[in-house]
Specification:
mainly alpha; binds heme C
């Protein structure tokens, strides 16, 4: 069927290697991209606005009504516990000052997931 030299046995191997490396790069760069987007949403005053209350490395004019977001990976080894803290802090503390970003649909699930992935790198 395919008689062009492109599909001879030898080149199939190289096409396979090429596609595998493209997929690999996409997943690595994809993660970096999500973390960068997460940082943007975290700092955006109209989105996460997390700096209103939290000190975060690299953020300007932070508030101090909440604990600084540092050493998150050590203190929250499970990414999911960060997601639930952001989505619904009332679960852990019914009197929390922190807005329940998921429960009140302030941010969507993907935005919360990206924020958690970024916060997890701190
Ligand atoms: C209105 C203030 C306020 C805003 C805005 C806010 N938080 Fe919080 N946050 C708090 C307070 C207060 C706590 C302390 C625990 C509690 O009372 O729930 C907290 C706790 C946390 C914790 C746990 C901290 C720790 O040291 O264990 C994380 C993680 C967190 N917030 C992430 C975020 C993220 C991410 C955003 C933005 C999407 C955000 N917060 C926005 C007030 C805020």
């Amino acid at each position: 069927m395919f008689t062009t030299p492109l599909f001879t046995r030898g080149s199939q191997f190289w096409i396979f290697i090429f596609l595998t490396s493209v997929l690999f790069c996409q997943s690595v760069l994809g993660d970096a991209d999500r973390i960068a987007q997460g940082k943007e949403i975290t700092f955006d005053r109209k989105k996460g606005n997390c700096l209103a209350c939290h000190m975060i490395d690299d953020g300007s004019l932070p508030g101090n009504t909440a604990p600084p977001l540092i050493a998150m990976k050590q203190r929250y080894p499970e990414l999911d516990s960060l997601v639930s803290q952001i989505s619904n802090p009332l679960d852990k503390n019914p009197n929390s000052l922190m807005p329940p970003f998921g429960l009140h649909n302030i941010l969507d699930e993907d935005e919360i997931q990206k924020i958690a992935e970024y916060i997890h790198t701190l």
